Automatic annotation (TrEMBL):
Pfam families on file: HMA
Span of domain HMA: 34-106
Organism listed in the record: Pseudofulvibacter geojedonensis
Domain of life: Bacteria
Name of this protein: Cation transporter
Annotated InterPro entries: HMA_dom, HMA_dom_sf
Entry's transmembrane regions: none
Amino acid sequence: MKKVILSLSMIAMIGLTGCNNQEKKQTENAAIENSKELVIKDVSFGVRGNCGMCKNTIEKAANSVDGVTSANWDGNKKKIDVSFDESKTNLMAIHNAIAASGYDTEKVAGSKEAYKNLPGCCQYDHSMKMNQSGENKSDNHSGHNH
Ligand SMILES: [Cu+2]
């Protein structure tokens, strides 16, 4: 009986130490995806854009890549979360597809031709900051981790 209580409290402790739960969540999601016997990889990277129409265009471009299972562009953070089957495509193919639709990504500059054909409201500022997640920067919560 003591042993059971001991191991239970250990499990509880392991659970509580996960304060940095963002990363943990992602690995949990990946584990769920993997159980479908697909090699699904989750990535996110910066993509410039303005509005809901941009969101449609960007996500459509990403989804047009064979092997992409989901794409979600965040207009506030200027970044996209993409899940894709690693056996079917790769990260650069997704960058290239989005760039071809006229949008700058972190790695590939958007097609100028496609950009010219975007609606006026979508002609985003090329100096716009991308990927404003604060994930890899100290985001002024200096001193405490959460
Ligand atoms: Cu737009």
